[in-house]
């Protein structure tokens, strides 16, 4: 299934709009990782542990979005937007939204 942030798919006209689809995930970060990430922020550098949580959340939200689009019979999702929010002091929420579509010339949904 094609997932894109664009509103159109070049060379593949949209034949049918199936509706809005979302994928949501919430991940907790543990206290020890928060502590060491804070130290790293003070001395500089990137926080690899947080980057992994962000990536894990993004991939999970997109996978859920894709599954919901497939359930509608879509073969693509256009206009995808990813939102990252903190919940409480140590939780990350990732929400992916987009429009499920059936586009010409793309493989059918499985």
Outline the structure in words.
With 110 residues, the chain is α+β, with helices and mostly antiparallel strands. The protein is 34% helix and 38% strand. It is built from two helices and four strands.
Strand content: 35-45%
Mean pLDDT over all positions? 87
List the uncertain runs: none
Specify the oligomeric state.
Answer: single chain
Main-sheet strand order equals 1-3-4-2
- Got a strand count? 4
Tell me the Rg in angstroms.
Answer: 17 Å
Helix count, per DSSP?
A: 2
Overall body shape: elongated
Elements, N to C (H/E): EEHHEE
Give the helix/strand class.
alpha+beta
What is the share of helical residues? 25-40%
Summarize the biggest pleated sheet. 4 strands, mixed
Label this structure with key terms:
elongated, alpha+beta, single chain, 2 helices, 110 residues, 4-stranded mixed beta sheet, 38% strand
Structure summary:
This protein is of the alpha+beta class. It has helices at 31-43, 48-71; strands spanning 2-3, 14-28, 76-87, 91-103. A four-stranded mixed sheet has the order 1-3-4-2.
Set out the fold topology.
Layout: E1 2-3, E2 14-28, H1 31-43, H2 48-71, E3 76-87, E4 91-103
Parallel strand pairs: 1-3
Antiparallel strand pairs: 2-4, 3-4
């Amino acid at each position: 299934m094609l997932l894109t942030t664009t509103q159109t798919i070049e060379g593949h006209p949209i034949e049918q709009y199936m509706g809005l689809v979302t994928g949501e995930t919430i991940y907790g970060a543990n206290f020890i990782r928060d502590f060491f990430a804070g130290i790293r922020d003070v001395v500089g550098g990137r926080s690899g542990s947080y980057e992994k949580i962000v990536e894990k959340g993004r991939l999970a939200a997109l996978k859920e979005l894709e599954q919901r689009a497939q359930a509608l019979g879509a073969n693509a999702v256009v206009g995808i937007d990813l939102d990252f929010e903190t919940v409480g002091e140590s939780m990350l929420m990732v929400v992916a939204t987009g429009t499920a579509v059936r586009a010409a010339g793309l493989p059918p949904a499985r």
